[in-house]
Design a protein that fits this description.
Helix content: 10-25%
Largest sheet: 8 strands, antiparallel, barrel
Structural class: alpha+beta
Number of helices: 1
Order of helices and strands: HEEEEEEEEEE
Radius of gyration: 21 Å
CATH architecture: Beta Barrel
Number of domains: 1
CATH class: Mainly Beta
Distance between the termini: 50 Å
CATH topology: Lipocalin
Strand content: over 45%
Length: 147
């Protein structure tokens, strides 16, 4: 490899490394555990979001005896926006009722679809409190950093 090609390759590697570090630094600000509530129709869901310094996250949502979980990668696509890309989720099956014509039926496992993830606008009201507003599906919630 000629000298200018080596220099160009080193420069490209440095740009990629610095861009990666900038994204991690941005998502690193979100690192920690957050808790809050979200309203879905008439139901209130308790939300816990844990973001790691490397930008991975786990979110659990509870309402009564029901719970869901999703995990994946968080990124900051633009100023004031946070995006969640889902790579894992639970439950992977859920009971579904299958009617048998007239009367009767049975329950069998069904495969729920992958959660959509999504993009949220965010506004910090102080260092440990953030208000999220859904950029696509709407809705809002307030999260408080607990550690």
């Amino acid at each position: 490899m000629t000298g200018w090609r080596q220099a160009l390759a080193a420069l490209a590697g440095a740009v990629v490394l610095l861009a990666g570090r900038a994204v991690l630094a941005q998502s690193g600000f979100w690192a920690g555990a957050w808790r809050g509530e979200a309203r879905v129709g008439s139901a209130t869901m308790l939300v816990e979001l844990v973001v790691q310094p490397d930008g991975t996250y786990v979110e659990t949502e509870r309402s009564g005896s029901m719970m869901t979980m999703q995990s994946g990668q968080v990124r900051l696509p633009a100023a004031g926006k946070i995006a969640f890309t889902v790579t894992g989720w639970q439950p992977r099956t859920t009971p579904a009722y299958h009617a048998l014509g007239g009367a009767g039926g049975f329950y069998a496992p069904a495969l729920p679809s992958k959660p959509p993830g999504g993009v949220w606008r965010y506004r910090f009201t102080d260092a440990d409190t953030v208000v999220l507003q859904g950029a696509g599906l709407g809705g809002s919630m307030m999260l408080v950093r607990v550690r």
